[in-house]
Each structure stands twice: as C-alpha cells, then as structure tokens.
Amino acid sequence: MTFVGKILVIGIMAFALLFLGISVVTFTTATNWKTAMAVPKKKVDELTKKNNDATAAVEAAKKDLAAAKEKHEAAKKEMDGRIAALNTEIQGAQEEITQSRTALEDAQQKAKTALDEAAARKQDTDQLRAQKSAVEKQANEYKLRQAELNDRIRELSRMLETATNNARDLRDKVARFAAALPAEGLFQRRQPVPGP
To answer: By CB neighbour count within 10 A (0-12 exposed, 13-18 middle, 19+ buried), where does 80 fall?
Structure first.
C-alpha cells in the first residue's frame, strides 16, 4: 500500500467516523415527528378554537357595544330632554321665587305701613281712651254735682213750699188780725199785705 493509499484509507476512515457520529447524533436527536406534531397540532387546534371563540366573543361584544351605544344615545337624548325640562322648571321656579320675593317685599312694605298705621291708631285710641276716661270722670263728677244740685233743688223746693205755705198762713193770719183789730176797736195803721 502506498502512502497515498494509506492517507486515503485514513481519510475514508475519518469521514466514516464523522458520518457515523453524525448518524448517531441524528438518530439520537431525531424524534418521531408524527407524535411530536400531535401535541403542537392539538395546541394549535385549541388556540384556533380559542381564537374563534374570542373572535365570536369580540363580535358579540361589538354587537353589545353597538347596542349599548344606541342605548346610551337614547338615554343621553332622554337625559338631555330631562335636563332641558328641569332647566325650564328651574327657570320657572326662579321666576316664581322672584315674583314671590317681590310680593313678599310688597307685603312687608304694606305690613310695615299697616303696623305704622296701627301704631298711630293705637296711639290715637289710647289718647281717645284717656280723653274718654277724663270725660267720663268729669261726667261722673257732673252727675254727682247734678245729683247734689237736684237734692239741693228738692230741698229748696220743699223750703220754698214750706215758706210759701208759711207766708200764706201768715197773710191769712194778718188778714184775720187786720179784720179783728177794727172790730175790737184797736186802731192800727194799715200796712200793705205782701202778695204771693
């Protein structure tokens, strides 16, 4: 064997060992792709199913979102209408409050005027009561004085009547004595007889 043959044998043997190592590594690292693919395929199927479910859920969520948006728009329109109605009510209430305040101020002014007038009338009434009390007191004094004067008049009337009766009796006596004196012969100057 020649030197070149020896080199070729050694080279072939090296390549054989190299290919043996590669074959061993390939054989030891080689897997059963059918069984190995079953698990990822199952995972892919699961993920595809989940993706389809998620897509269906997203579609359902989109439909729900669209329905919710429509509902929200309707509710917003309703709320806007209610807000407008409430603003109108508030404006009406504020106008009523303004009118009530104006009416209250007018009523307070009228009440103040009425109270002032009532106070003036009370003062007038108190003054009139005081005057009435003074007049009643004076009237009572006059009534007492009148009663005293009436009693005095009655007393004087009785005295006058008594004096008149006494004067009449005295005239009668004087007339009898005047008639009796000439009859008895007694002379007496004639005096005039007082009249009634």
So the answer is: exposed
| Radius of gyration of the CA atoms of the chain, in A | 76
Residue 26, domain member (yes or no): no
Q: Is residue 13 domain-resident? A: no
Structural domains in the chain (count): 1
- The range of the structural domain enclosing residue 139 comes to 39-184
112 in any annotated domain: yes
Q: In this predicted model, what pLDDT tens digit does every residue of 67-101 receive, in sequence order?
A: 999 999 999 999 999 999 999 999 999 999 999 99
Going from the C-alpha of 27 to that of each of 20, 21, 23, 156, the distances in angstroms are 10, 10, 6, 176
d(CA 94, CA 85): 14
| Amino acid 91: pLDDT | 93
